[in-house]
Amino acid sequence: MFIALIRFPEVPVDRDADFQAWFAWSNRELAGADGLRSRRLLRTAAGQYAGLVEHESSASFAAMHAAPVVTQIQARLHEIVPVPPQATEFEVLSEPDTGGCCGDAGTDHHHGSFETGEAAAAGCSCCHAS
After folding, report:
1. Which of 101, 96, 87 is nearest to 1 (CA)?
2. 106 φ/ψ sector (left φ>0, alpha ψ -120 to 50, else beta)
3. pLDDT tens digit string along 61-93?
4. How much is the pTM?
């Protein structure tokens, strides 16, 4: 697995809602990208944003960034914050074996590596149903 930690520049307070809406929209645009496992928006207590992107491999991450839709995604972000984000890329060397889901090797692709909250209580519709 491959992970990119994206550090976004400071988002002006008056553009905060626009930024969060942009991230949600960009997730919808990228939803079908080959190899994309998850894409999450994070925020520190001080209000700094980061993105956590999980991919099958560095090759699938690079392929996603070569897709035409990424140009549009980046252009919309530039309208909100003029400074581009910075990415730090990681190859995952070790992760817990959570037992998998639906044949997925070691991770539950419906809920992430560890189930929490309502998803864990209710179980997903595939292999966690009681």
Report:
1. 96
2. left
3. 999 999 999 999 999 999 999 999 999 999 999
4. 0.73
**Who's near 64: CB < 8 A, 6+ residues apart?**
30, 33, 34, 35, 36, 55, 70
| DSSP conformation class of 112 | B
Q: What is the CATH number of domain 2-94?
A: 3.30.70.100
Q: Give the residue-averaged pLDDT of 106-119.
A: 41
Domain with CATH 3.30.70.100 in the chain: 2-94
Q: Which two tokens stand for residue 26?
A: 């960009």
Structure tokens at 3: 């992970």
- The Cβ of residue 30 has, within 10 Å, a number of other Cβ atoms equal to 16
